[in-house]
């Protein structure tokens, strides 16, 4: 039997189990995200027909939930097992992935600031594509409704954008009851109403344009978001800094543990 001892080097239990605790939280969060996403797809029948995702013109919010879940689950698993088993390959994978995500976030933030017009055009295209698919996916519908209610806006640049949707289109070929209307989330809320009137947007665009603001929001959501960002810049910056510090902390723990393991392997004797 071979024995070995550590020569002036040992793996720090503090860093080892701190990294494990750090990753178990993300691993469990990944499990929750995956569970919620798969449950949502099951409720919508997507699991029995995955082609429904590709047929949607807009984006299914569940896809984003599943993507986040897969990333968190994979990194959390690699970090947990790598820390417990002192596996350098898994730890380097975890560390490298966190570094890549960190610089990717940084690059996106810088490019979004430098190319604001391009970002605005892409967001308009994204919003308009989702308007087209508004009635095709319940999660997408709820997402757009939440966005419009929270920001008191309607459409990408205004209520006319809802002409892109077959149900709200004002053309003569449309026989929908919602023709020339807007979703209820575009309506100015009535404090006296305790129950949401989901038909408040019906026929509203048949009225004179000057009267629209009496019953619906006329500001586009792109303008609303552009106004929201400067008002909440400190909150956005605080969230970005907090996420960055968490990532840097994870990188520090992983690199420290890798250095300890490499030092032990270099100094042990048989």
Automatic annotation (TrEMBL):
The chain crosses the membrane at residues 20-41, 62-84, 90-115, 233-254. Disulfide bonds join 153-186, 154-170. Keywords: Cell membrane, Disulfide bond, Glycoprotein, Membrane, Transmembrane, Transmembrane helix. It is found in: Cell membrane; Membrane. The keyword Transmembrane applies. InterPro entries: Tetraspanin/Peripherin, Tetraspanin_animals, Tetraspanin_CS, Tetraspanin_EC2_sf. The keyword Transmembrane helix applies. SUPFAM superfamilies: Tetraspanin. Gene3D superfamilies: Tetraspanin. It is a multi-pass membrane protein. One of its GO terms (cellular component) is plasma membrane. CDD domains: TM4SF9_like_LEL. Pfam families: Tetraspanin. It comes from the Eukaryota. Belongs to the tetraspanin (TM4SF) family. This is Tetraspanin. It comes from Chrysochloris asiatica.
């Amino acid at each position: 039997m071979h024995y070995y001892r550590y020569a002036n080097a040992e793996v720090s239990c503090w860093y080892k189990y701190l990294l494990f605790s750090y990753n178990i939280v993300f691993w469990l969060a990944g499990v929750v995200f995956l569970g919620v996403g798969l449950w949502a797809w099951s409720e919508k029948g997507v699991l029995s027909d995955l082609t429904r995702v590709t047929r949607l013109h807009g984006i299914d919010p569940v896809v984003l939930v599943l993507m986040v879940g897969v990333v968190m689950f994979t990194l959390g698993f690699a970090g947990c097992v790598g820390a417990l088993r002192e596996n350098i390959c898994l730890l380097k994978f975890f560390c490298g992935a966190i570094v890549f995500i960190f610089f990717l976030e940084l690059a996106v933030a810088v490019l979004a600031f430098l190319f604001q017009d391009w970002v605005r055009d892409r967001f308009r295209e994204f919003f308009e594509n989702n308007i087209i698919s508004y009635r095709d996916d319940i999660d997408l519908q709820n997402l757009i409704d939440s966005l419009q209610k929270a920001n008191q806006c309607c459409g990408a640049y205004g209520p006319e954008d809802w002409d892109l949707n077959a149900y709200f289109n004002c053309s003569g070929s449309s026989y929908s009851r919602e023709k020339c209307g807007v979703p209820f989330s575009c309506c100015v809320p009535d404090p006296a109403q305790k129950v949401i009137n989901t038909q408040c947007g019906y026929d509203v665009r048949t009225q004179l344009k000057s009267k629209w603001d009496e019953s619906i929001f006329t500001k586009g959501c792109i303008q609303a978001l552009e106004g929201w960002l400067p008002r909440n810049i400190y909150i956005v910056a605080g969230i970005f800094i907090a996420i960055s510090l968490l990532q840097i902390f994870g990188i520090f723990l992983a690199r420290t543990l890798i250095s300890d393991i490499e030092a032990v392997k270099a100094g042990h004797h048989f």
